[in-house]
Structure prediction request, 414 residues.
Amino acid sequence: MTIKDHRGDAISGATASARDAFERALDLHLSWRTGADVHLERAVREAPVFTMAHVLAAYLNLCSRDVARVREARAALERAAALPANSRERLHVAAIRAALDDDFPTFGALMRGLLEQYPRDVLALQVGHALDYMTGDLDAMASRITAVLPAWAPDLPGYHAVLAMQSFSLVESARYDLAAEYGLRALELKPLDARAHHALAHVYEMTSDASGGVRWMQDRLAHWSVDTVAATHLWWHLALFHLARDDTGAALALYDQRVRAGRSRELADLIDAASLLWRFELLDVDTSGRWLELSLAWAPHVDDAYCTFSDLHAMLAHVGARDWSSAGRLERALLERQASETRYGETTRLVGLPASRAIVAFGRGDYARATQLLGSIPAHARRIGGSHAQRDLLYLTLLYAVRRLRRPARPVAA
Prediction:
């Protein structure tokens, strides 16, 4: 008997109970909630030759900026590749291999073909969306979801996640009213969808409604701050709202009590911490030694050679701590890496190296050089990935460099 997933696509090597455990893991992953790995381990334990379970295990690591986790995806890929598979599953295996081989054009083509044939494959949609975000491909992000929406309906498991993904893609396309509509529809179906809460936080951010954003997040605290993989990032959003309201005290308290409370070494958490603390730096807020801890936490990643977005946040931490030795080491590494014939080499040439040098110049008080370097970064800087709200940090740094250039000269003491 052919076993199908909860959206009607055939799956190889599964039992009914393993399929149900897989679906639970998938739902938690789609909702950005913790515990997906526990249910996935159960699915593999009950059905070791369950191909899509190994595919999901590969994707959980592939969709990361942490090169150590990405490398772990290859082992899961090889396990999946050795198992019997139908045509849909073979497309997944080929797509994973292309992404791990740094062949993103092939990955994109495989995902488009997969979703054309199987528009209800929500895992394919999720992974394509995640890698669109990480590579800054806003056109693909928008078109990928729009193309499959006619095949979906509210009674299909995972529909809330499709709506949440569409909400975020609409935010990044500056269609804020429609983004809010899709996000709210997702939450009607699944109030605990942390991804939908995140998309709506972006709506408030991009429409400069900081007070509305604070109310929204505080009213729904229990929905996004407990048992979610995005809690730290959403605390980051709340801190940005406080900064926009000139409440630096509340924002700094969130940095201490939420963003860095547990001294997390997760790369996503380090990125949020550096991004937030740099905003205090721009505002001349006394951070009282917080930079040193963060710079030390970033130190093991200087040799990652994988993600320009991460490199920039590492440089923020080193410069904020005035750790010129680590900053210099990272700059020298980027100088070498820009010659690489990879996507990472290209983003290092276009953005990573000039932006990192601009951050160093800013930290040393050379605002003219910081302005020149940041102003030279091409318009397609979005290829480093991240959201508009995250990449805005480069433009904020440019703005504050210009402002400091225009400061009246201080009188020289007699």
